Amino acid sequence: MQDPEKFVLRIALKLPIWYRIMNVSEIKGVRAKAKKKLAWIITPFLIFILVYLLYGNTGFKNVKMVGFENKYKKENPNPLRKNKVVITSIHMGAGHNDSLGLVMASPYKNVEQASQLYRYSALIKDDFLMSVSEEKLKRWIKNRDFDDIKTTFRNTVNKFLDEPVAEVYISSYFYE
């Protein structure tokens, strides 16, 4: 049988030197302090990541965050989706059962053009209605010639604007 003192001495020599110098309670205290320091370092970093993930792409609209920019959110080229249009509703009737209702959208580029479109909207609508003859309206209804409708409306709109509109859109229509 071995001597218990030699057995304890042999085990103590196998332990690392820092363990032999400190007792167990001191080691636990050092570990707790290290964990506390690590928590103070990691917590702000995790809070920053959480704030970035929650509000990064929505809350800070003018700030571009590195790496996580939303690549899937592409800008829609249709100006109807951007609400940078002036809507004009027109209903034209030609005879007993021939009528055409249109909702035309005229996009604008700047505030000045928008104010002109709003200011002259009644004149644009009246001029458009006066420029369309009964035969032309019946032809539009029969052939559903939307390109000719858009061209006529665009020409009418451009008469009243300083800076011409490149394209107008038919937002909705109905015909009888």
Please describe the structure with a list of short key phrases separated by commas or semicolons:
14% strand, Tetrahydropterin Synthase, Chain A, 55% helix, 8 helices, alpha+beta, rod-shaped, 3 strands, 2 domains, 176 residues
Short description:
It contains eight helices and three strands; from the N terminus they run ααααββααααβ. The chain is α+β, with helices and mostly antiparallel strands and 176 residues long.
General description of the model:
The protein has helices spanning about 5-15, 15-20, 25-55, 80, 110-120, 120-130, 135-145, 145-160, and strands at about 85-95, 100-105, 170-175. It is α+β, with helices and mostly antiparallel strands. It has two domains: about 5-55, no CATH class; about 80-175, Tetrahydropterin Synthase, Chain A. The chain has a three-stranded antiparallel β-sheet. It is rod-shaped, with a radius of gyration of 38 Å. The mean pLDDT is about 75.
Output mean pLDDT.
Answer: 74
Number of domains: 2
Distance between the termini: 112 Å
Based on CA atoms alone, the radius of gyration comes out at 38 Å
* Order of secondary-structure elements: HHHHEEHHHHE
CATH class of the largest domain reads Alpha Beta
Question: What is the overall shape?
Answer: rod-shaped
Itemize the secondary structure elements and their pairings:
Elements: H1 4-14, H2 17-21, H3 24-55, H4 79-82, E1 85-93, E2 99-107, H5 111-119, H6 121-131, H7 134-143, H8 146-160, E3 169-175
Antiparallel strand pairs: 1-2, 2-3
Helix pairs in contact: 6-8
